[in-house]
Amino acid sequence: MINSEQKLKFSPLHRLQWEEAQQKYVILYPEGMVELNQSSAEILKLCDGNHTLPELVAELEAKFATSGLTTDISNFLTVALQNGWIQYA
Amino acid sequence: MAGSNTLNITPPRWLLAELSYKCPLQCPYCSNPLDYAKYPQELTTDEWKRVLAEARKMGAVQLGFSGGEPLTRPDLIELVAYARELGYYSNLITSGYGLSEQKIIELKQAGLDHIQVSIQASSQALSDHLAGTESYAHKQQVAQWVKKHGYPMVLCVVIHRQNIHQMADILAMADSLGADYLELANTQYYGWAHINRDALLPTREQFAEAEQIAQAFKEKVAGRMKIYYVVPDYYEDRPKACMNGWGTTFLTIAPDGTALPCHSARELPGLDCPNVKDFSVQQIWHESKAFNFFRGTEWMQEPCRSCDEKHKDFGGCRCQAFLFNGDAASTDPVCSKSAERGKIDAVIASARDAALAAEEKPLVFRNSRNSKLF
Fold first, then answer.
1. Chain B nearest CA to A12, separation (Å)
2. Model confidence band, residue B1 (pLDDT cutoffs 50, 70, 90)
3. Which residues does chain A have within 8 Å of residue B116's beta carbon, measured at their own beta carbons?
4. CA of B26 to nearest chain A CA: how many angstroms apart?
5. How far apart are CA B199 and CA B205, in angstroms?
6. How far off is chain A from B350, nearest CA to CA, in Å?
7. Taking CB atoms and an 8 Å cutoff, what residues of chain B touch A13?
8. For chain B, does the N or the C end have fewer beta carbons within 10 angstroms?
9. Which of B9, B15, B61, B155 should we substitute to test contact with A (largest number of A Cβ atoms within 10 Å)?
10. ipTM of the predicted structure?
């Protein structure tokens, strides 16, 4: 579960990068790479040390003119936290 | 150059830049070719830059600066900076020998993403013996500097019969150094490791015990340390999916510019591996005989040809097939479906006999004097 009070940031030990050849965002780390779909990349880009989970959800719901994203985003961020891609700021 | 074929060729993702075969260490399991002393030429800085740019344009994103010892190249920082500019994630794969804190800072400023330090064993005496050089104490210091300067710290320990009894201590060492990643690489028997195999291959019991210790540790450190465990394929009954499939993902450039589909491929006859001095990376990847040789499944023999697992392991390792069967297109003898599996079992038995013998054969260390014998 993600703590809604704390802001999230991307791990300094990983790199989030757009790959022109693959036309997708990837996470790079020692000897490894994870390819991201568009929604995962949009979520991770907002893990910039300035957003908590509710703030991040509000921003994405506004950007994509939709609602009800909390569960999906929370689930993805839980996985991201477990994998060390993000941290609490 | 052979004509291009109709396969759907995926672009390279990993580029291993072996900058130099020079190395201050003499590890008896080195993956460099036995006869590396025959290839003293090294690409120039500009040639390396062209290779980096061409491979990046095709889609390569992970870059390993390796060797030999990549720190022997005076232009390393310039190459690291160029790699960063191109958008690579760059990995320095080093013995740490002679690496100063100042150089670690400069490499970071140039854009290096991570440093992988190898340590040969958990005790100074054994580590220095295996490295053939006094280096253990400095490696520990380097590991601490790597951590201090904000790199992900990857510790690599190659596992074999001379150090497998230290598994618990090796894990404790990785923990106390604060490693973010620990690569436990069971020795793969090519090159120098192949000629030293009787002295390096653990027994099945030793391997099972060490694996159990590593597994328990993995659970203990879950969340703070990731463990890459390279399996000892002789004790498996299916071969490794070598290189994720030939010519699909990995590109190695040897110090002299020879392009290899895997870093051991120099041992294989008939490939005519091309050189980046003569062709672009694009031409080499798509059109060369070497990179097309074992692409896809058409080259396979039985039992691979009709096997329902052929897309999973690609028939295993071509170098291993050649070393055991004299035919690089045959099934990797590790596979229990191979008629030649008995050869692997014979090697396991031979190493076991050597382990139980009163006197062990001396190790052949990797150095230029020994290399000239091959």
1. 8
2. very low
3. 30-31
4. 24
5. 16
6. 34
7. 152, 180
8. C
9. B61
10. 0.89
Burial of A84 (0-12, 13-18, 19+ CB in 10 A): middle
Confidence of residue B6 (pLDDT cuts 50, 70, 90): low
Q: How far apart are CA B338 and CA B329, in angstroms?
A: 12
Query: Is A19 close to B13, i.e. CB distance below 8 A?
Result: no
Q: For chain A, list the domains and their CATH numbers.
A: 8-84 (1.10.10.1150)
Residue in chain B lying closest to A80 (CA): B223
Q: Do A26 and B152 touch (CB under 8 A)?
A: no
Torsion of CA B242, B331, B264, B346, to 10 degrees: 110
Q: Are B93 and B71 in contact (CB under 8 A)?
A: no
| Contacts with A26 from chain B: Cβ below 8 Å | 61
Which residues of chain A fall short of a pLDDT of 70?
Answer: none
Tokens 């015990």 belong to B209
Q: Report chain A residues whose CB lies below 8 A from the CB of B113.
A: 15, 28, 30
Which residue type occupies B253? I
* pLDDT tens digits along B196-205: 999 999 999 9
Task: Tell me the CA distances in angstroms from A58 to A61, A62, A72, B251, one per residue in order.
Answer: 5, 6, 13, 44
Place of tokens 């071509």: B318
Cβ atoms of B190 and B29 closer than 8 Å? no
Q: What share of chain B is helix, strand, coil (3-state, %, to 5)?
A: 40, 15, 45
Query: How many CB pairs below 8 Å do chains A and B form together?
Result: 46
| Contact A23/B at CB under 8 A | no
Which regions of B232-359 does DSSP assign to beta strands (E)? 250-253, 259-260
- Close Cβ partners of B355 (under 8 Å, ≥ 6 residues apart): B161, B202, B203
Contact B20, B257 (CB under 8 A): no
Tell me, what's the pLDDT at B155?
A: 95
